Amino acid sequence: MKENYFLDDGAYLVSKLLIELAKSKLANQSLPDLIANLKEPEESAEFRIKLGVDDFKAQGDRVIEQLQEFVSTQADWKIVPNNYEGLRISCTSASESGWFLLRLSLHDPVMPLNVESNVKGGVAHIVARLLTFFQTTESLDLSALLS
């Protein structure tokens, strides 16, 4: 959250939720009322792409830079600005209608890839396009994406 300087702080989030829950009780609402308008994606998946080099942080940074260049050649993919963790891309084609986030793990030689789509088959479509990019990149174990 911006107000907490974008720190990954579960306790802060729980505190915010408890405050909102107390406010909703005063307004005769329940927790389900607070989330009633939130939409679930049609599909979502997480893949953990392993980096096969000793200096995995440098390799991960290179992969993210190269992905930025690749995305710039895709007419219906746009970089979401002000992302503080990896690279988030909005996928706007009718067959994808979603987004993905590729980031580098802080501690492990892994790049988690999260993909969501609002249409059936959208995750597979996004992943297929990403494979075009990933297969040209060295030292990546793509078995998670291929299974």
Please summarize what this structure is:
The chain has 147 residues and is α+β, with helices and mostly antiparallel strands. It has helices at residues 10-26, 31-35, 56-71, 122-134, 143-146; strands at residues 43-51, 77-79, 87-91, 98-102, 110-117, 140-141.
List the helices and strands and how they pair.
Layout: H1 10-26, H2 31-35, E1 43-51, H3 56-71, E2 77-79, E3 87-91, E4 98-102, E5 110-117, H4 122-134, E6 140-141, H5 143-146
Antiparallel strand pairs: 1-5, 1-6, 2-3, 3-4, 4-5
What is the string of helix and strand elements?
Answer: HHEHEEEEHEH
DSSP strand count: 6
Strand proportion: 15-25%
The major beta sheet can be summarized as: 6 strands, antiparallel
Cα-atom radius of gyration: 18 Å
The number of helical runs is 5
Helical content stands at 25-40%
Helix-strand makeup class: alpha+beta
Large-scale geometry: globular
Widest sheet, order of strands: 2-3-4-5-1-6
Mean pLDDT figure: 90
Unreliable residue runs: none
